[in-house]
Amino acid sequence: MESPDHPLAAQCLQTLPKIELHRHLEGSLRISTLRQIARQHNLPFPSNADLPALVQIQAGEPLTFANFLSKFQPLRQFYQSPQIITRVVEEVIADAAADQVRHLELRFTPAALARAQGFPLNEVMDWVIESARRAASQRGLSLALIASFNRHEPLELARQVTALSADRAGSGIDGLDLAGNEAEFSALPFAGLLREAKQSGLRLTIHAGEWGGAANVREAIQDLNADRIGHGVRVLEDSSATALARERQITFEVCVTSNVQSGVCPSVLAHPIRGMLAAGLNATFNTDDPSISNIDLTHEYRLAVQELQLTLAQLKDRVLAAARASFLPPAKRQTLCDSLEIELAQQIST
Question: Is residue 285 situated within a structural domain?
């Protein structure tokens, strides 16, 4: 097997089949599309040259939680019509397919898509479901959709999204995601809703251990019955939380570049994912918000082998681990894993 910095290894990463468990629709929009929408709808944004500075992390900017979140503020103004929402969904899936993503778990926040024009939440969700299904079929890509709401927003809004998602469980929505400001807002008020969601057949992923500590990871597992943890990179701060996650075989949706850009980790080399893997935790590689971070999943895989020094065989294991943790129904999940193993074996000698 070639060394991680060998040119053939780099080429292999580009063509390597990939699994994405943690990608936000609202952080995945093409700059070229944003420019077109701004012109067509006379949105109050600066010239083409300046737009990326508003919606993407730039060199020299502070790597902080506040700066990272500020990139979402202008993006909320772009969802001006059903056609725009449909377009951006289709483009996100096209971009994932071009990056050799075989299965994409795309999470979206109905309230964020609805807010600019006051669209009904149910209609927004159906626009996303229909366009995502169509695009995934056209691109030959396996797909799961995850509806998201924020812990810093009203409980009633979360209740609406949960009810609408439950109505679409098994027919468009596969899971729920609790996101938002975990440093200042507890997840516990949402426990009842999340329990109802699981009873309806939805799977749960919860942002925890990103801007909050390891106690939030333990809470998400013990009290909220999470199937997966979004980020979770602070879990190693508490040995009991680490042991619990290992015992329950919880999958962590880790996003290395995002964690650095948002100030969670001081650098790629200081990122705790190597320690998580050494502790027996099921950590996977994901993009989070690829447009805001100006990356793709190939970039994250390249960091894994060239900066974090995982071997290609180890990366293959992480790709398979992500597939096994997908929110697909069991039969479809097994089919995905079987086909992925064959494809990976053709590219990586173990």
Answer: yes
Give the N- to C-terminal CA distance of the chain in Å, as an integer. Answer: 8
- Looking up residue 205, the CATH number of its domain turns out to be 3.20.20.140
Beta bridge partners of 169: 173
**Angle at CA 279, nearest 5°, toward 276 and 281?**
60
* Tokens at 147, concatenated: 């509806």
CA dihedral (227, 233, 236, 238) positive or negative: negative
Per-residue model confidence as pLDDT tens digits over 232-273: 999 999 999 999 999 999 999 999 999 999 999 999 999 999
Question: How many separate domains does the chain show?
Answer: 1
Domain that holds residue 130: 7-347
Q: Residue 66: left if φ>0, alpha if ψ -120 to 50, beta else—which one?
A: alpha
List the catalytic residues: 210
Does the global pTM surpass 0.90?
A: yes
Determine if residue 249 is left, alpha or beta; phi over 0 gives left, psi from -120 to 50 gives alpha, anything else beta: left
